[in-house]
Design goal:
Layout lengths: L3 H14 L16 E4 L2 E9 L2 E6 L10 E8 L5 H17 L3 E8 L8 E10 L2 E12 L2 E12 L3 H22 L6 H4 L5
Antiparallel strand pairs: 1-2, 2-3, 3-4, 4-8, 5-6, 6-7, 7-8
Length: about 190
């Protein structure tokens, strides 16, 4: 039976994209792909179909990371209604997997910008706790989730996470919701790959 940490990374993809290749089959594109989040450079560590995981230097062990940015893309989702459906399914899946919902929010569509959705949850397990900030948006004509996760380890990680959220939660959310320079699905998922 998969543990909750494994389910977190797969949650959004499993709902929309269907079965994906085994973790060992995933690999990043040939040239290094990076993104900058909150002043920190993240390197693409793993990629399979429509899911792409980035961690900072020094956190290349995907079984023991502290900070991760995941990009999930949703082919076939190209409008606000489809994106809202994805956001609702992701939230339902998080809840089904025992997430504690911290906050949800939607940014209404404007003349310049399509609607966006934010989901912030905690995944507490026996030996760690993970804060997940998921921003769902349309980018390059495709539904995209940009997910920042912060994980703390130890049986008493909940108290430390509460302090971390109080100190950093609002700033992380602001960085995520204003992040514009995100690798496109055209780079992450080139045709024929």
């Amino acid at each position: 039976m998969p543990n909750i940490r494994g389910l977190i990374r797969w949650a959004a993809v499993l709902l929309i994209a269907g079965p994906i290749a085994a973790h060992a089959a995933g690999s990043p594109p040939g040239s290094p792909v990076t993104l900058t989040f909150a002043g920190q450079t993240y390197l693409l560590r793993w990629s399979s179909q429509h899911q792409h995981e980035f961690t900072p230097s020094g956190q290349d062990d995907l079984s023991r990371w502290t900070d991760m940015v995941t990009i999930n893309t949703y082919p076939g989702v190209s409008d606000g209604e489809g994106l809202a459906d994805v956001a609702n399914r992701v939230l339902a899946n998080y809840k089904q997997n025992n997430a504690v919902v911290v906050r949800t929010s939607s940014v209404p569509r404007t003349a310049d910008r399509p609607a966006e959705h934010l989901i912030v949850v905690l995944f507490p397990v026996r030996d760690s706790i993970e804060a997940v900030f998921a921003r769902l948006r349309l980018a390059d004509d495709r539904g995209t989730a940009v997910i920042y996760s912060h994980r703390l380890y130890g049986q008493k990680a909940g108290k430390a996470m509460a302090t971390w959220l109080k100190t950093h939660g609002t700033t992380v959310e602001r960085h995520l919701m204003t992040l514009q320079d995100v690798p496109s699905h055209r780079i992450l998922e080139p045709p024929g790959r």
